[in-house]
């Protein structure tokens, strides 16, 4: 800007009659100004060249990053498909082409619904739009197909990219074929049913004590039972709640006093001799899965007992019970069993009177609701 002003000033001076001096004073001034302008132009050119080099280096770095991420995208073990804001496929990786047994060319620039059976496309579009809006990252079970393979069951997860104004730019779908897993689960269920269909069932009513057998374990087929022990002051301590598929027996505890009581109106059990498990891998696996659930539940209950305040312990206990015996309802999660205040007190290391007071406070605060059948429900914000 300064250089332009100096040149313009020099031009005006040369145009004035007084500037046409015989001694030629204007010419040296002009040369000096032009020399200064030339130097400034050289400096500007050097700065532009440096900036150009920086831009080239940045472009090369971006290209290297893009290439690296593209390579990761291509080599990912799961199938990935990227969509634009209209649901059109913009890129697919190798795993996706293998999953659908087709080339990139057959998938690119096509609507994602071409991979969905015709009768389910409308429902798929609506669910896709809903999940994009709420950014639901939970598994989405969908039946997919391609012209080159039979329809199969898949699990989809979404990740959504938005611009600064919150508009959807692109959506990436991770697609996993779960048909083999479902077949394995169905086969496992059939084996389990075959294993237990001919065994006699033993029925117990609510409140009945269930005797433990020295050479066999009980496996729950229906209902819920409470596992507990007694302290030296004859106080009962709840050790857990067990439901369908959970085993219990004398050899699974180190407690000298261990008792089991039916919590449901009807509890159905079968007995499995210890010796039989050694000769049946499927049975041993089934029992191991049940024992694992018991172990995980015990850890959750231990965390409850570690809290200092009684209100924190009781609220944490309700959260644990939600994971064990909760069932979804319109207003939240409802505990399917009605535990007495004394049983809640035993599990939360407090007194029955304290539990009664705290439940009333929780209800007043909106942390729980209690219906006319005395079932506790945890609202959505506390579920």
TrEMBL record:
<dbReference type="InterPro" id="IPR013767">
    <property type="entry name" value="PAS_fold"/>
</dbReference>
<dbReference type="InterPro" id="IPR018490">
    <property type="entry name" value="cNMP-bd_dom_sf"/>
</dbReference>
<keyword id="KW-0175">Coiled coil</keyword>
<protein>
    <submittedName>
        <fullName>PAS domain S-box</fullName>
    </submittedName>
</protein>
<keyword id="KW-0805">Transcription regulation</keyword>
<dbReference type="InterPro" id="IPR012318">
    <property type="entry name" value="HTH_CRP"/>
</dbReference>
<feature type="coiled-coil region">
    <location>
        <begin position="41"/>
        <end position="75"/>
    </location>
</feature>
<dbReference type="Pfam" id="PF00989">
    <property type="entry name" value="PAS"/>
</dbReference>
<dbReference type="InterPro" id="IPR036390">
    <property type="entry name" value="WH_DNA-bd_sf"/>
</dbReference>
<feature type="domain" description="PAS">
    <location>
        <begin position="65"/>
        <end position="135"/>
    </location>
</feature>
<dbReference type="InterPro" id="IPR014710">
    <property type="entry name" value="RmlC-like_jellyroll"/>
</dbReference>
<dbReference type="InterPro" id="IPR035965">
    <property type="entry name" value="PAS-like_dom_sf"/>
</dbReference>
<dbReference type="GO" id="GO:0003677">
    <property type="term" value="F:DNA binding"/>
</dbReference>
<keyword id="KW-0804">Transcription</keyword>
<dbReference type="InterPro" id="IPR000014">
    <property type="entry name" value="PAS"/>
</dbReference>
<keyword id="KW-0238">DNA-binding</keyword>
<dbReference type="GO" id="GO:0006355">
    <property type="term" value="P:regulation of DNA-templated transcription"/>
</dbReference>
<feature type="domain" description="HTH crp-type">
    <location>
        <begin position="308"/>
        <end position="381"/>
    </location>
</feature>
<dbReference type="Pfam" id="PF13545">
    <property type="entry name" value="HTH_Crp_2"/>
</dbReference>
């Amino acid at each position: 800007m300064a250089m332009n002003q100096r040149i313009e000033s020099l031009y005006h001076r040369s145009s004035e009659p007084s500037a046409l001096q015989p001694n030629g004073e204007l010419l040296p001034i002009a040369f000096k100004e032009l020399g200064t302008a030339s130097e400034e132009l050289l400096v500007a050119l050097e700065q532009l060249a440096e900036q150009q080099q920086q831009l080239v280096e940045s472009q090369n770095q971006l290209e290297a990053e893009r290439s690296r991420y593209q390579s990761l995208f291509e080599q990912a073990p799961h199938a990935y498909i990227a969509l634009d804001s209209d649901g059109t496929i913009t890129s697919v990786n190798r795993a996706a082409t293998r999953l659908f047994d087709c080339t990139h060319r057959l998938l690119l620039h096509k609507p994602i619904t071409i991979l969905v059976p015709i009768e389910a496309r409308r429902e798929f579009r609506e669910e896709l739009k809903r999940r994009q809006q709420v950014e639901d990252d939970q598994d989405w079970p969908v039946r997919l197909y391609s012209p080159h393979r039979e329809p199969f069951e898949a699990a989809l997860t979404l990740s959504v990219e938005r611009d600064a104004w919150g508009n959807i730019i692109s959506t990436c779908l991770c697609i996993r074929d779960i048909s083999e897993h479902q077949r394995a689960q169905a086969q496992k269920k059939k084996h389990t049913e075959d294993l237990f269909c001919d065994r006699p069932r033993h029925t117990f009513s609510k409140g009945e004590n269930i005797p433990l057998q020295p050479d066999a374990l009980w496996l729950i087929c229906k209902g819920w039972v409470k596992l507990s022990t007694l302290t030296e002051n004859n106080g009962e301590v709840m050790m857990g709640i067990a439901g369908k598929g959970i085993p219990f027996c004398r050899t699974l505890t180190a407690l000298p006093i261990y008792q089991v009581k039916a919590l449901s109106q009807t509890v159905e059990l079968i007995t499995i001799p210890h010796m039989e498990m050694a000769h049946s891998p499927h049975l041993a696996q089934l029992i191991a899965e049940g024992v694992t659930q018991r172990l995980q539940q015990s850890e959750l209950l231990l965390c409850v007992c570690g809290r200092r305040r009684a209100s924190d312990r009781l609220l944490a206990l309700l959260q644990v019970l939600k994971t064990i015996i909760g069932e979804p309802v319109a207003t939240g999660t409802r505990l399917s069993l009605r535990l007495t205040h004394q049983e809640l007190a035993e599990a939360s290391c407090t007194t029955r009177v304290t539990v009664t007071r705290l439940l009333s406070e929780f209800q007043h605060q909106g942390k729980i609701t209690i219906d006319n059948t005395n079932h506790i429900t945890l609202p959505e914000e506390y579920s």
